[in-house]
Amino acid sequence: MLPRGRPRALGAAALLLLLLIGFFLLGGDPECERLEPDGRAGDLGCPRCPLTPRVPSDGRLRGASALHGDPLAGHWDHNRSACDPWPQLPPKCELLHVAIVCAGHNSSREVITLVKSLLFYRKNPLHLHLVTDAVARNILETLFRTWMVPALGVSFYHAEQLKPQISWIPNKHYSGLYGLMKLVLPGILPPGLARVIVLDTDVTFASDIAELWALFAHFSGVILLWLDRLRQVGWEQMWKLTAQRELLTLAATSLADQDIFNAVIKEHPELVQPLPCVWNVQLSDHTRAEHCYSEAADLKVIHWNSPKKVRVKNKHAGFFRNFYLTFLGYDGNLLRRELFGCPSQTLPEAEQLQRALAQLDEEDACFEFRQQQLTVHRVHITFLPHKPPPPRPHDITLVAQLSMDRLQMLEALCRHWPGPMSLALYLTDAEAQQFLHFVEASPVLSARQDVAYHVVYREGPLYPVNQLRNVALAQALTPYVFLSDIDFLPAYSLYDYLRASIEQLELGSRRKAALVVPAFETLRYRFTFPSSKAELLALLDSGLLYTFRYHEWPQGHAPTDYARWREAQAPYRVQWAADYEPYVVVPRDCPRYDPRFVGFGWNKVAHIVELDAQEFELLVLPEAFTIHLPHAPSLDISRFRSSSTYRDCLQALKEEFHQDLSRRYGAAALKYLTALQQPRSPA
Amino acid sequence: MLPRGRPRALGAAALLLLLLIGFFLLGGDPECERLEPDGRAGDLGCPRCPLTPRVPSDGRLRGASALHGDPLAGHWDHNRSACDPWPQLPPKCELLHVAIVCAGHNSSREVITLVKSLLFYRKNPLHLHLVTDAVARNILETLFRTWMVPALGVSFYHAEQLKPQISWIPNKHYSGLYGLMKLVLPGILPPGLARVIVLDTDVTFASDIAELWALFAHFSGVILLWLDRLRQVGWEQMWKLTAQRELLTLAATSLADQDIFNAVIKEHPELVQPLPCVWNVQLSDHTRAEHCYSEAADLKVIHWNSPKKVRVKNKHAGFFRNFYLTFLGYDGNLLRRELFGCPSQTLPEAEQLQRALAQLDEEDACFEFRQQQLTVHRVHITFLPHKPPPPRPHDITLVAQLSMDRLQMLEALCRHWPGPMSLALYLTDAEAQQFLHFVEASPVLSARQDVAYHVVYREGPLYPVNQLRNVALAQALTPYVFLSDIDFLPAYSLYDYLRASIEQLELGSRRKAALVVPAFETLRYRFTFPSSKAELLALLDSGLLYTFRYHEWPQGHAPTDYARWREAQAPYRVQWAADYEPYVVVPRDCPRYDPRFVGFGWNKVAHIVELDAQEFELLVLPEAFTIHLPHAPSLDISRFRSSSTYRDCLQALKEEFHQDLSRRYGAAALKYLTALQQPRSPA
Questions:
Q1: Smallest Cα distance from A510 to chain B, Å
Q2: Torsion-angle region of A444 (φ positive above 0: left; ψ -120 to 50: alpha; else: beta)
Q3: Which of residues 3-62 of B touch A (CB under 8 A)?
């Protein structure tokens, strides 16, 4: 969140860390007045933040405040906490609470970096209280469910419910409204929650949050007293009155939460207790701000208002940036570690998973396959801003999956498919950042709001192709999906043609069908894409194009009946045959891909079997086509194709798949079993 | 280092952390005797390591020992240090010393992970004292020179010099000899060095090493006294006598350093002071060992005897592994951060670099190019075990560079080129680990000891192609080099043929020449490589092969004169012409590539200009050929080729290159300048 509001003595900047004690109560510390004129503590030379009343007028220095009670009732030795790098930590295994307001795609990405830094240093169980809009909730619920971090609880609260309490404050800024929610957080958090640390999304921890929590402990035992006083002081009335008064004298059109906090503090300077400045270290050219932390032994929290500051030529910029980048690219899977020496707090799903993994036989030749099948990948849906397509009855989402080595396909794909897409990307955390930069640098990709990118984080040696497909499929928001692969470029007209075909064929109401898009391939790098079926047929005849896998795996597409397709003027029905794996258009609620097929081989074949078993008609469209472009074999594929174990395991997977088919479809599945032959090549 | 030696009461395990105070002196702490029978301190329930005399007999628990002086003279409150999670830290900015013994390729990789974890948590200047063999020294000198970490000093010591002092001890294990060096380290470290922490290469820090250093501070002021006593006790004689005596009664054929330490300790139990066990946390199924740390608030150091333990089904395995993996894949560039609040300790090279970077104009359209040119990439030479080729007068090393997306070329390249190779790989730290696994999983690659892989760590947006080539070139150890590109496969016979040609042409003595290997390309994926010139010509005639870049950039290879080559029976000389960029064989001491050419374009052209300016004859070999395989354009190339800024900057680079040429070669360079035309396409 960027500073906004009028320039004023107290600064327009965000309060970084706000310690809420049940409800708010502000209290000053008389010791804070005993400062040297330079704003530093006079005694031990220990770094101090200037007190709130002395915050410099340039608005650059943001006072992070610990709000607490009557200093006489429960005195907090401020010097000690500022100077002593090792305050007493909270009891081992005590649950610490953190609240964060988060809305939209970009904030959701930010908050994950914050949470990674929290988890990296934490040694206590944590509970996150996330106040979110619908977008952030959807993203973060999926993320935390699949992340399965032990000893991490997450609760969601509807930001919508808080809006009425603050929407009367003039605010022209979307994120500003969410910023203001910090004023009314106590109203939404559980009444039984006594203490919570409220964080902005753009901070990075460089230490254990327990040390921050420990600042509560300095006045433990008097919290109830403070709660009483909180009610006496009446925070809710206090901030509202202040805000209303400010609005009367204010020419500006909006107030930020910081402005209101600062205004209250200005009126009641005796009620504020600044945090040691190491808890709010910001990139600043302001000497005084720098003074505040440059002699500290330790930085606890780094406040990045914007990663764009990377470019600032501040001598500490490198230091700041490196902490931020550390957690930006940090492998979140590594944070799935149990707390040491605390009672196990594994989630039921995680426990079940661990049991299943423990039952695997490590001596089994297919151990890696079985392990990969069981792996729950961390999933970050709609990693980049995305606008859901408007509801249209025949709309189609192109569904595909890819890893880093196919990123260069995306621009061409966008040119060929003007409709919605749902793409699953199999990436490391660091690669996800590279991907982000790749999209930002591409005008073609940046311009598309209807392409949803879902990051599935890498884990394990085998490419989880069908799990990826299922993630992309689950996030498709149109009634139909085109199940494609990333190295195919559809005919320019395909999107429009498919929608027209769905309408004409009355698929929605009348027929349960899968529309087959015939697949071709070129072995050439430089290649002019045919703009019509006629052009395609000419290329086919001249040997510049082939039907897909004509040389190595003709049975994969033979049932499409290319000879008939050449002449066809209308859709025609084809019959399933062994090893058939066409690219199809189906309703969004079609069967999922079988996640047991990891690595490369038979993953689409099994899905087509499933469609056939569920009695989908297979209808080939006469004007549809898609063309496979050449590429070097991926690392994953070359690593496993050469291995005989790989082939044996694939065979085992097939057999298990057919056993399951028989179980589910009974005698009707017999034809698949009898069709099962020794594979000539994995699909 | 794995445990070895006889099973014995004191365990055959390594002493993990050895605190050396100038010289050695062992001293016991009487408080350590006041333990409950379960080996824990009786008072505060704080975790304690069993004392050395009580080390269980299974040898699993390794006592990490702090060796110090007369407990009466300078008492160290052991309970406090074990229980207080926050011992007093050393003075801010105090220089801490660490000694590590490191030999060979694999230990060099290990030590880097250790150093990353040290640097991540450290807040003090550090000095590393590295006792190395020639291999490790070569690797680590290059690494630290290019890493340029502020406030990190590194000294190297020849392990060879220490060998005579320990080689009398029977030892059949190469690394064992290096293990024994810890016994005699004080003899090689500077006499003025008062304190040093000695670390094994297979540990990972999970906290600031200053906390470990702080354990010295508990008896500060009495160190000189201890030094006196150290000399009185006579450590050097003590361990030698013990070792000799052990050998008399010993059936085994070798002694490890741990055996000797343990034997001395056994004889003088009153002289040992165990470290709090959090400083040596090991993966163990042994209840007692686990007890030692499972209730600790904090783990300080994790001791990985071998990453293979990843597979162990210990309930803490995940925790251990994740710490290790954190630093294994951590971007070492992020550790180039200045210490906060300490006087700047930037290295002169780094300062010069920073000045140069600061002088760049951020508004310059070519800012990214200039920044990339100045970037000093961290370099890890011979990342994997490598056996230098035996000296042979006409031997040739294939030199090339690649990034992750070309890894799948390596196996084919190994099949085509049976001779030595020097390859620079442009990778992130995490990718370097993927690369390691890739090689380990490939029988073809694992079998080759004559391929040297040099990791150049990624930094910046442009591919530093010529810097990579220079790294690979500098590490070639044969008299000649074949300067190739990774997407070319040489004729199967090329290695032998080139050596024979060099001999016949008497290149070494008579002629200053560059041998041109004619280049071809296929646009097809599936392609049978020609086994002779005759087969190649047949493919050329049938349109399955082309001369390289025949369609887009014919001038790049036109001077090779393919028509003449068809008929040639003997090497023939050709003349330089504009944009010529053949693949050549030259002496190892040939001119370096111009590092100003970053990204893609004109990088080889400039090198050939340089060769011509230095009057290398260009001799085309009649039987030599190499073939370019198709591949998707790399991300780097597609990102920049489309940009007009890229082309403008490339043009600016060319002009600057020609200005430099004129400066260096005077009138002789005029022909290059006149030949410089507007580029039709970047090379």
A1: 43
A2: alpha
A3: none
Distance of residue B499 Cα from the nearest chain A Cα, in angstroms: 31
Residues of chain A contacting B335 with CB distance shorter than 8 Å: 322
Per DSSP, chain B holds a count of helices (H) and strands (E) of 24, 23
Q: Which of A411, A444, A416, A370 is nearest to A656 (CA)?
A: A370
Name the closest residue on chain A to residue B321, using Cα atoms.
Answer: A334
Residue A575 CB coordination number (10 Å): 9
Q: Which residues contact A69 (CB under 8 A, 6 or more apart)?
A: A21, A25, A27, A219, A222, A225, A226, A229, A230
- Quick one: pLDDT at residue A257? 67
User: Cβ–Cβ contacts within 10 Å for residue A570, how many?
Assistant: 9
Transcribe A293-320 into DSSP letters. HHT-S---EEE-S-GGGGG---TTHHHH
Q: What angle do CA A284, A330, B633 make, to 5 degrees?
A: 100
Query: Would you state the pLDDT for residue A596?
Result: 92
A297/chain B closest Cα distance in angstroms: 7
Residue in B70, B51, B65 with CA at minimum distance from that of residue B19: B65
> What does the DSSP 8-state code read for residue A529?
P
Q: Which residues of chain B have pLDDT under 50?
A: 1-86, 218-231, 253, 285, 287, 306-310, 312, 680-683
Q: Give the number of other CB atoms < 10 A from CB of residue B368.
A: 20
CA distances from B542 to A524, B545, B680 (A): 16, 8, 28
**Cβ within 8 Å, pair A337-B318:** yes
CA distance A497 to chain B (A): 29
The A residues from 287 to 316 touching B (CB cutoff 8 Å) are 293-299, 311, 313, 315-316
Residue-wise pLDDT for A275-310, tens only, equals 666 666 665 545 455 565 555 556 777 766 554 444
Amino acid at B646: Y
ipTM of the modeled complex: 0.76
Beta bridge mates, A489: A627
Cβ B329–A331 below 8 Å, yes or no?
A: yes
Return the bridge partners of A126, or none: A96, A152
Read off the pTM: 0.81
pLDDT of residue B255: 58
Q: Give me B42's structure tokens.
A: 């009786």
Angle at A113 between CA A111 and CA A118, to 5 degrees: 90
Residues 420-439, chain B, touching A (beta carbon < 8 A) = 428, 430, 438
Is residue A157 within 8 Å of residue A188, measured between CB atoms?
Answer: yes
Confidence (pLDDT) at A8: 27
B499-507 contacts, C-beta under 8 A, 24 or more apart: B499/B394, B499/B395, B499/B396, B499/B419, B500/B394, B501/B571, B501/B621, B501/B624, B502/B394, B502/B396, B502/B585, B503/B393, B503/B394, B505/B571, B505/B619, B507/B480, B507/B587
Q: Residue A96, exposed/middle/buried by CB under 10 A (0-12, 13-18, 19+)? A: buried
Residues 6 or more apart in contact with residue A390 via CB below 8 angstroms: none
Residue A119 CA to residue A205 CA, distance in Å, equals 9
* Whole-number pLDDT of residue A189: 82
* Tokens linked to A661: 């088919």
Instruction: Give me the long-range contacts of B230-234 (CB less than 8 A, separation at least 24).
Output: B230/B21, B230/B22, B230/B23, B230/B24, B230/B25, B230/B69, B231/B23, B233/B25, B233/B26, B233/B271
For the four alpha carbons of A173, A174, A176 and A177, in that order, the dihedral sign comes to positive
Q: How many CB atoms lie within 10 A of CB A88?
A: 15
Chain A residues with CB-CB distance to B319 below 8 A: 337-338, 340
Predicted local distance difference test score (pLDDT) of residue A349: 83
What residues of chain A score a pLDDT lower than 50? 1-86, 219-231, 253, 285, 287, 307-312, 680-683
Contact A576, A510 (CB under 8 A): no
pLDDT of residue A175: 55
Distance CA(A407)–CA(B134), nearest Å, equals: 42
